[in-house]
């Protein structure tokens, strides 16, 4: 992954008055500035500015309909295909504004992988599911594909369970396995950022635990942004937390600080309501 | 996947080359015939004969025999009805236009430069359901039946059974001839119509009290061929013109017949068609006719 | 291009996240072909794909437009060139285009055919709709597994049987059967209806099946959870939600029946009169069209009159298609 | 009457309905097979038809039916898939698109005689291909297009939107997503559509009378060079299919055993339809497995 290390300087916006500790900014790889998303007239995401430090898990929490999923989707421009949806502000990734018209959309989505709420395996074999990305990317020779598939499945902690049935249909896997297959499929593109949109909300507790454990492992080499309704999950696996309400970031800081003494009473209410 | 994509492109390219080859090969027909010529000397340009479905079996049988004698000759015969045949030949789109009516009788067909070749004669006669109990009708009775004045077979001395009239399709040559010579030009009543002889034969054979008209080649045991004014419908009575309900089968060419078209028409008038093939198929040889008839229907002794 | 870039983003000091220097740095990065800016051949493939598919749609639409133009131009020429009167056409009951009536206009009364066509289509739809919807319900609710395995080949086979064979069987089985039971020669609207309803059965069944299967599973389970029996669930939930789809299926079947030619021509008797009963020979637009086309000379009044029949057929199928669209759009949005 | 008994009554009613349909089909097939099967012999299947003697066969007609079907599918399936993809994926809800949809649907309810005549005027006369397999194949493609486009569009739009988003999230372009993800998932639906369409091609007669013609010149099955006039593969020779042959025999056949030949031909036609449906079902599954499994 050829990346030009460009450290954007700390960001100060009048509205949120957040002061980030210096070390977070220095190694943040993804940063949004005044990002707003409008569906026709309705403003779903309002002037959100967040930084996502490298090798860390940032959890986006908030009541449903607060725009956290919309915000997540606008990072790798998945909202582009929804008509009457307008995005303003910038998303800086490695110093490049992803919303500028000159950037290659497909390149962005390769480097910023995404996993959805419900597992979405292709109607293909397990091998072909994971190999679909690289093959489309021009990787031709069999051994190289075999290596990528094995490596991705190992990273997604699925290799042991499927290594001898690689050529059966992916639809025969369980819900949790299918979700990990989707993660493996995203990892096969060698992304540097992973966006997870409530990855475990459609899974049973056992699979959810597996996914959470996998995420905390992936933290070592990927920057992860996860949208979740599950407070315990956020507390367990995230390093930073941002609390969204009505499309705006009310509070944003390290997990300990948010969960022990949140600065805004709104955040406190939400967290106590959910955990208390 | 790359491979999948290549397949769709390949299929598309295959389709284009096929169409291009197809179009080019029509242009290459001349060179094509050139080769065909070396292969078989007499083979001429493939010809197309279109028209009357009544004449089609005869021309097909004759063409089949002709190609056995000189292989390589390609004769395509299509049906489509006398109307199509006449209009196509007058436009010069085909080599031979088959028709069972005179070109002059069809409006809209410019018969000026059409050359008529009468190759056979088709006799037609009224046929009825076997159990009507009537064998012979006079012309007036026939007109009465088809115009709807006579409603029941018992009025003709047959069984008490309602008469069911089945006409032929409005534009067909068979209907035009029957109305002209059997009904003396009277308009038949509005009744059930069928255009194909096979269907008419089946309906008349199975519907008690049904009556219609067919060409001699369609007579069989399932229907009774009625005698008119005591004359039995067969080859002798037509040749002597005692049986007036008959029509020439015309093979029109645009201007003088030439090439394979001429050879085919000459073959049609030759012995092995007029004497052997025609009787087998219940058509009547034109050479045997003792009378001549023109488009207006005036008969002259030959 | 860079000048345009800077104006467009009207670099605004207060809000901008990073200093002006950083911003210029970002733009320079574009010069060094940062991977994110590289134009991939995906764009070319995308344009190729979209172009290819648009070409096929355009081709399909062009062919259709050509056919419609042909039918309209020839169909209208009866009224324009051979000055046939439209009123006669829809009200007259005698059809003899070659002759001219007292006013010097060709006799083109197509009412008998219209009545025949509508009667045959309507009644066959009434006859085959319950059968088809019943089969569709059977295949999706009562015995999905076996139903699909038996009925799917049955449907595919019924579609495959040529209309000539349907007509032939109609002639040898249906007509004699009707002749023995009812007065008349067995030909007529009744025979045409029986043959047609069997012919459109597969079309209506497969479309009804799609409509029923489009009803989400959760609706069925919700209704069953309320303690309703399967039949109540089918009536209240499945049929109600699938109603537009089922209507579409029946109307599409009618459109198909309206256009059927060969089979109907063999059994309906082709009499150019308005039938007084279902068992009298009648005729439909398609039967007269098929029968007469071979015998008429292109360009003549008789031929143009037949094309006007084809035009009426076209307008009727346009009417069917638009009602189908309206039903579909009305309910589903 | 309690709801329970009403339910049982209704279920019984549905069984009756399905029973009626199956008996109707069994009656149809029984009638055709009882009369037709005794006719079918190797000689009947291979020998060319006789014009007026007995013992005619349907060899060339059977070959023409299959050859015409293959040509029609080669022409109409790619176009239909292309059109289906565009209408399902790229078409915005623009009035032009709505017009095209109505146009294509009107085509499907047009009587085939009208399509046949269009084929006659355009392919036979204007393009100068004459009465030939090619004009027949193009006419049938036109006749088949609406059904195929409709089926392809339906099976593509029935693939859930989440599959598309999954594809985009992997960095695929719209076209790549269609080719790699959506087409394979929609394949079973497309195969069913192709089967229904080929059933209609087999059974079609009216459209072919004026395009592929009603006569079969002598073809020798030894000469396979497509350009020579007597070879079976030459797309420019007129070719009468089984359905047209049945129509012609019933209409104008003067050979004494016309009825027997028509029954035999009808039985043979239905057997070949059964065979074709079965074969394409298997090929469809194979393609789906190959595309998705290994």
TrEMBL record, chain A:
Pfam families in UniProt: ABC_tran
Entry-linked SMART domains: AAA (SM00382)
Record keywords, A-Z: ATP-binding, Cell membrane, Membrane, Nucleotide-binding, Phosphate transport, Translocase, Transport
Location of the ABC transporter domain: 30-271
GO molecular function: ATP binding
UniProt KW Nucleotide-binding keyword: yes
InterPro entries for the chain: AAA+_ATPase, ABC_transporter-like_ATP-bd, ABC_transporter-like_CS, P-loop_NTPase, PstB-like
Coiled-coil portions: none
Keyword set includes DNA-binding: no
Protein name per UniProt: Phosphate ABC transporter ATP-binding protein
Organism encoding this protein: Sporosarcina ureae
TrEMBL record, chain B:
Membrane topology: Lipid-anchor
Keyword Acyltransferase included in the entry's annotation: no
Domain PBP, residue spans: 38-271
Domain of life: Bacteria
SUPFAM superfamilies with a match to the protein in the record: Periplasmic binding protein-like II (SSF53850)
Keywords: Cell membrane, Lipoprotein, Membrane, Palmitate, Phosphate transport, Signal, Transport
Signal peptide from the UniProt entry: 1-21
Predominant place of localization: membrane
The keyword Methyltransferase is assigned to this record: no
InterPro entries named among the record's database cross-references: PBP_domain (IPR024370), Phos-bd (IPR011862), Phosphate_ABC_transporter (IPR050811)
Protein's cellular compartments: Cell membrane
Family to which this protein belongs: Belongs to the PstS family.
Function: Part of the ABC transporter complex PstSACB involved in phosphate import. Involved in the system for phosphate transport across the cytoplasmic membrane.
Complex formation: The complex is composed of two ATP-binding proteins (PstB), two transmembrane proteins (PstC and PstA) and a solute-binding protein (PstS).
Name of this chain's protein: Phosphate-binding protein
Lineage: Bacteria, Bacillati, Bacillota, Bacilli, Bacillales
Automatic annotation (TrEMBL), chain D:
PROSITE patterns the UniProt entry points to: ABC_TM1
Keywords recorded for this protein, A-Z: Cell membrane, Membrane, Transmembrane, Transmembrane helix, Transport
Localisation: Cell membrane
Pfam families tied to this protein: BPD_transp_1
InterPro entries for this protein: MetI-like, MetI-like_sf, Phosphate_PstA
Domain of life: Bacteria
Membrane topology: Multi-pass membrane protein
Main subcellular location: membrane
Keyword flag Iron-sulfur: no
Domain ABC transmembrane type-1: start-end pairs: 62-280
Membrane-spanning segments: 12-34, 66-88, 100-125, 173-197, 265-288
Keyword Aminoacyl-tRNA synthetase assigned: no
Similarity annotation: Belongs to the binding-protein-dependent transport system permease family. CysTW subfamily.
Protein name (database record): Phosphate transport system permease protein PstA
Organism (species): Sporosarcina ureae
């Amino acid at each position: 992954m050829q990346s030009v290390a460009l450290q954007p300087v700390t960001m100060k916006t009048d509205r949120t008055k957040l002061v980030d500790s210096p070390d977070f900014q220095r190694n943040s790889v993804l940063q949004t500035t005044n990002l707003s998303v409008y569906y026709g007239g309705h403003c779903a995401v309002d002037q959100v500015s967040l930084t996502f430090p490298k090798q860390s898990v940032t959890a986006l929490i908030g009541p449903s309909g607060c725009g956290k999923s919309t915000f997540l989707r606008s990072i790798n421009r998945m909202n582009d295909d929804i008509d009457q949806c307008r995005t303003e502000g910038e998303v800086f990734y490695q110093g490049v504004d992803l919303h500028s018209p000159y950037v290659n959309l497909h390149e962005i989505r390769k480097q910023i992988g995404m996993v959805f709420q419900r597992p979405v395996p292709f109607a293909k074999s397990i091998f072909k599911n994971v190999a679909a990305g690289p093959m489309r990317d021009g990787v031709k020779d069999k051994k190289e594909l075999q290596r990528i598939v094995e490596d991705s499945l190992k990273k997604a902690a699925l290799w042991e369970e499927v290594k001898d049935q690689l050529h059966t249909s992916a639809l025969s896997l369980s819900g949790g396995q299918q979700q990990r297959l989707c993660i493996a499929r995203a990892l096969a593109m060698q992304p540097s950022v992973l966006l997870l949109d409530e990855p475990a909300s459609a899974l049973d507790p056992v699979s959810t635990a597996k996914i959470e454990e996998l995420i905390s492992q992936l933290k070592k080499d990927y920057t992860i942004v996860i949208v979740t309704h599950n407070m315990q999950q956020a507390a367990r696996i995230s390093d930073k937390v941002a609390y969204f309400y009505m499309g705006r970031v009310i509070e944003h800081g390290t997990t300990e600080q948010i969960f022990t003494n949140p600065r805004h009473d709104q955040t406190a209410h939400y967290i106590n309501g959910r955990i208390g | 996947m790359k491979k999948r994509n290549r397949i769709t492109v390949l299929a598309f390219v295959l389709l284009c080359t096929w169409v291009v080859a197809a179009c080019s090969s029509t242009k290459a027909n001349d060179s094509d015939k050139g080769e065909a010529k070396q292969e078989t000397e007499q083979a001429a340009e493939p010809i197309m004969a279109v028209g009357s479905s009544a004449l089609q079996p005869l021309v097909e049988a004759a063409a089949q025999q002709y190609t056995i004698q000189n292989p390589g000759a390609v004769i395509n015969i299509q049906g489509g009805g006398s109307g199509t045949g006449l209009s196509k030949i007058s436009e010069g789109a085909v080599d031979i236009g088959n028709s069972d009516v005179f070109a002059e009788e069809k409006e809209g067909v410019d018969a000026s430069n059409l050359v008529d070749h009468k190759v056979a004669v088709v006799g037609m006669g009224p046929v009825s359901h076997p159990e009507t109990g009537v064998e012979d009708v006079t012309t007036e009775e026939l007109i009465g039946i088809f115009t709807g004045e006579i409603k029941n077979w018992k009025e003709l001395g047959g069984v008490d059974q309602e008469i069911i009239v089945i006409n032929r399709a409005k534009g067909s040559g068979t209907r035009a001839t029957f109305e002209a010579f059997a009904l003396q030009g009277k308009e038949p009543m509005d009744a059930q119509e069928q255009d194909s002889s096979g269907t008419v034969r089946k309906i008349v054979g199975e519907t008690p009290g049904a009556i219609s008209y067919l060409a001699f080649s369609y007579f069989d045991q399932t229907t009774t061929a009625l005698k008119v004014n005591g004359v039995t419908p067969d080859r002798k009575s037509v040749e002597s013109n005692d049986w007036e309900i008959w029509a020439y089968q015309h093979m029109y060419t645009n201007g003088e017949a030439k090439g394979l078209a001429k050879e085919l028409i000459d073959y049609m008038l030759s012995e092995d068609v007029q004497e052997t093939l025609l009787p087998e198929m219940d058509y009547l040889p034109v050479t045997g006719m003792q009378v001549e008839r023109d488009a207006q229907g005036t008969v002259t002794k030959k | 291009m860079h000048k345009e870039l800077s104006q467009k983003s009207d670099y605004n000091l207060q809000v901008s996240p990073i200093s002006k220097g950083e911003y210029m740095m970002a733009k320079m990065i574009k010069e060094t072909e940062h991977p994110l800016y590289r134009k991939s051949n995906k764009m070319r493939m995308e344009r190729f794909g979209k172009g290819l598919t648009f070409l096929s749609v355009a081709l399909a639409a062009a062919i259709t437009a050509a056919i419609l133009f042909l039918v309209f131009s020839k169909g209208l020429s009866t009224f324009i060139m051979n000055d046939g009167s439209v009123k006669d056409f829809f009200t007259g009951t005698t059809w003899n285009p070659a002759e001219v009536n007292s006013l010097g206009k060709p006799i083109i009364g197509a009412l008998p055919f219209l009545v025949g066509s509508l009667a045959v289509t309507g009644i066959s739809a009434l006859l085959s709709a319950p059968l088809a919807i019943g089969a569709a319900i059977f295949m999706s609710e009562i015995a999905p597994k076996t139903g699909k395995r038996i009925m799917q080949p049955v449907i595919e086979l019924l579609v495959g049987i040529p209309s000539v064979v349907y007509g032939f069987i109609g002639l040898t089985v249906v007509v004699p059967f009707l002749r023995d039971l009812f007065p008349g020669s067995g030909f007529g609207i009744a025979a045409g209806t029986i043959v047609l309803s069997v012919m459109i059965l597969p079309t209506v069944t497969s479309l009804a099946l799609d409509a029923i299967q489009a009803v989400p599973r959760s609706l069925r389970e919700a209704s069953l959870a309320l303690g309703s029996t399967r039949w109540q669930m089918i009536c209240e939930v499945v049929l109600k939600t699938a109603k537009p789809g089922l209507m579409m299926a029946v109307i599409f079947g009618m459109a198909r029946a309206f256009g059927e030619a060969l089979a109907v021509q063999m059994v309906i008797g082709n009499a150019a009169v308005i039938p007084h009963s279902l068992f009298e020979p009648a005729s439909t637009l398609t039967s007269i069209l098929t029968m007469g086309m071979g015998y008429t000379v292109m360009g003549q009044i008789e031929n143009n009159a037949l094309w006007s029949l084809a035009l009426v057929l076209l307008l009727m199928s346009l009417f069917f298609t638009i009602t189908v669209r309206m039903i579909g759009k009305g309910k589903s949005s | 009457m309690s709801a329970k008994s009403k339910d049982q009554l209704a279920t019984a009613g549905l069984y009756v309905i399905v029973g009626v349909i199956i008996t109707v089909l069994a009656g149809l097939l029984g009638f055709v097979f009882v009369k037709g099967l005794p006719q079918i012999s190797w000689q009947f299947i291979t020998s060319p038809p006789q014009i007026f003697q007995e013992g005619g066969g349907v060899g060339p007609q059977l070959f023409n039916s299959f050859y015409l079907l293959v040509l029609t599918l080669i022409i109409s399936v790619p176009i239909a898939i292309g059109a289906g993809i565009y209408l399902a994926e790229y078409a915005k809800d623009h009035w032009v698109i709505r017009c095209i949809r109505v146009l294509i649907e009107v085509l499907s309810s047009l009587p085939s005689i009208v399509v046949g005549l269009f084929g006659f005027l355009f392919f036979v006369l204007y393009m100068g291909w004459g009465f030939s397999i090619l004009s027949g194949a193009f006419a049938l493609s036109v006749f088949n297009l609406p059904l195929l486009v409709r089926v392809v569009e339906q099976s593509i739009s029935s693939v859930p939107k989440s599959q598309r988003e999954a594809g985009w999230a992997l960095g695929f372009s719209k076209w790549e997503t269609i080719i790699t993800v959506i087409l394979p998932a929609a394949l079973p639906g497309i195969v069913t559509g192709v089967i229904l369409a080929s059933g209609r091609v087999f059974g079609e007669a009216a459209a072919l009378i004026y395009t592929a013609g009603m006569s079969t010149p002598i073809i020798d099955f030894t000469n396979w060079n497509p350009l020579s006039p007597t070879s079976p593969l030459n797309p420019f020779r007129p070719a009468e299919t089984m359905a047209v042959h049945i129509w012609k025999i019933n209409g104008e056949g003067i050979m004494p055993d016309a009825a027997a030949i028509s029954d035999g031909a009808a039985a043979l036609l239905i057997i070949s339809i059964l065979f074709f449906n079965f074969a394409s079902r298997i090929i469809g599954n194979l393609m789906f497995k190959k595309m998705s499994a290994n």
